[in-house]
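The material for today's practical consists of a large collection of protein records. Getting from the letters to the tokens is the skill we practise here. To make this concrete, we reproduce a full record directly below:
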Amino acid sequence: QLVAYAPNADYQGVLPKAANGGVTARYYADETTMKLAVQNGEIDVAGRSLGATDIADLKKDDSVQVIEGPGGEIRYITFNLNTQPFGKTTGEADEAKALAVRQAAADLVDREELSTQVYNGTYTPLYSYVADGLSGANEALKGIYGDGNGGPDADKAAKALADAGVQTPVALQLQFNPDHYGAGSDDEYALIKQQLEATGLFQVNLQSTIWDQYSKARVNDEYPAYQLGWFPDYSDADNYLTPFFSPQSFVKNHYDNATVTDLITQQLSEADSTKRAEIIGQIQDDVAADLPTLPLLQGSQVAVAGKDVTGVTLDASFKFRYAPIAKG
């Protein structure tokens, strides 16, 4: 798939005129093919979907340059609040037990291990719902789950389940997608399964489904717990809140908290930046107590370009700018 862009000859804006005569963007379904294309000079810049192993290899390749910048991509587990263990439409529906299951999972997951063992540090631990670096972002999950410092705590997980009267091991169906969120998904979710099962508190049935089926099945309540990822549309905390936790959420996991909905509406219209950041922090705290989703990792922006390419800029806007790119 190709898309061609040409400079606007009539542009009179504040930014400099385009440094190139036009850009052709190509979509690659396979990240390995894209990696080879930039190494062989068939394309000038590759970005967004390269895996951790590919990036590590490319950093050793003298024929290309690796450019990094702050990233807003997040990876997380979604719980379907209707169909998860003890969910609202199951035969054993129990809100307290359902929450305890989510809490125990949050107590057991080891983000640092996922970051280092699966992604070589190209993704970093994420302890809240808004990407780190944005106004209002906090670490709402860090202090209340696991060991309080970001690590796992098996005893705490066991207590959460026992206090709610949940018998163990908890049978959990966990679904992931191998072809939409990068090649690391297989190893990522195999490790999550291992982390949850290591203490005997969970018995995880891990399954994968290709994207065409996955994207339909997840909104039809077929997956009690499942992988999702998010690339932001713009660099503002709201882009991690309204799409996820409002009544019109694309996640469609049956989460509904009237207080959170009201706070989301408030932050949209709050003109005072300090007050807005406080509201955004409160939203994260409230959602962390409910745990409809479990954030895991945040990715950085990475682009790989030929040595003769200049002007590739990756910044907190999360926008890939074509105009400054030049060659030669």
Q: What stands out?
A: The longest helix spans residues 273-290. The chain has a mean pLDDT of 95. The CA atoms of residues 84 and 224 lie 4 Å apart. The two ends are 26 Å apart (CA to CA).
